[in-house]
Amino acid sequence: MSDRAGTVLCMGNHSGAPGSPGTHLVWDWNGTLLDDAAAIVSATNAAFAEIGLGPITLERYRELYRIPIPRFYESVLGRPPTAAEWEITDVVFHRHYSERRVGCGLTDGAERLLKEWRLAGHSQSLLSMYGHDELVPVVRGYGIESHFIRVEGRTGPSGGSKAPHMRRHLEALAETVSPERTVVIGDAVDDAVAAAHVGARAVLFTGGSHSRASLEAAGVPVVDTLEHAVEEAIRLVA
Where are the alpha helices (DSSP H) in 65-157? Predict the structure, then answer.
């Protein structure tokens, strides 16, 4: 496997013969496969404290959350964050999140679903806006890396949309994966936006960053478990 150019390619082709019409899943990481919503809110509150904001609850976080992330800060501040505010909160958030992430487990059913999907001969990959250099060892540490044909985290500045990353991700898999047979499973409206950007489908999971109402506004299936997410994915490309 290789870590070059911001990617990790796992050995083997789980999708069958090249050009096979099987469904490909692109999984999100934070708030989807990784059950880290509490850690994210805790790190967010630590970041808010740096610029004089009080803490918010998980429920409130889900109501206000927006991508790009500066829009989320704007919804809390009532104005766009200054460049200095964004810089300091971004640094503090990532420092506190790294400390709290170690106590997080995988979402219920995640490991089983990943294994079953691979053993059924289907392909899946992981695309996250978590920094690539941090993501790769974390995924490896949970013992699930071998289930994916590609593991890819964000390269470049934080805070942006997943859409351009999704395009590059699927371009790298173009020999065996077609966007029309691809379903993105994530916890944010931005996952649905990224899927639409490349001509793929999306299913959104309520266990992460958004409220159900926010997710439903994206106009794609919304589910409460990862098992139902996979069921919806199969239905979408049947």
Answer: 69-77, 83-101, 110-119, 132-141
Q: pTM for this one?
A: 0.89
Residue 94: phi and psi, rounded to 5, are -65, -35
DSSP state of 235: H
Q: Among all chains, which residue has been given the structure tokens 């999100």?
A: 28
Are 152 and 7 a contacting pair, CB within 8 Å?
A: yes
DSSP string, 157-186: -SSS-SHHHHHHHHHHTTTT--GGGEEEEE
* Ramachandran area for residue 156 (φ above 0: left; ψ -120 to 50: alpha; else beta): left
Q: Cα dihedral angle (103, 108, 113, 115), rounded to 10 degrees? A: 40
Hey, how many other C-beta atoms are within 10 angstroms of the C-beta on 122? 19
Q: What is the pLDDT along the chain (238 residues), one digit of tens a residue?
A: 334 334 444 434 443 333 335 899 999 999 999 999 999 999 999 999 999 999 999 999 999 998 888 999 999 999 999 999 999 999 999 999 999 999 999 999 999 999 999 999 999 999 999 999 999 999 999 999 999 999 999 998 877 899 999 999 999 999 999 999 999 999 999 999 999 999 999 999 999 999 999 999 999 999 999 999 999 999 999 8
Helices (H), 11-109: 37-50, 58-64, 69-77, 83-101
Sheet holding 24-27: strands in order across? 151-154, 123-131, 24-27, 182-186, 201-205, 222-223
Type of residue found at 152? E
152: number of Cβ within 10 Å: 26
